[in-house]
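Friendly challenge for the regulars: who can give me the structure tokens for this chain first? No prize, just bragging rights.
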Amino acid sequence: MIQRKKLDELIHDFEPKIRKCLLQTSPDERDDLRQVLWLKLTELSTNFNSDNAPNFDEFRAQVENR
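First reply, four minutes later:
Bragging rights claimed.
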């Protein structure tokens, strides 16, 4: 499970991108979409297992084999 401090950092890092993307939606739907995006980001980050993530060489091999 991701620690609270790391989750706060992740949210802080994604805040500008999410705000920019929200400008593409209607003002009436921005709050709802913002909440959904934060919920999804939180769910993904808490379920992410870095032990299963490939290193750079493994990632490059996967990309090249596509």
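Helices lie at 4-22, 27-47, 56-64. The radius of gyration is 16 Å. Your move, everyone else.
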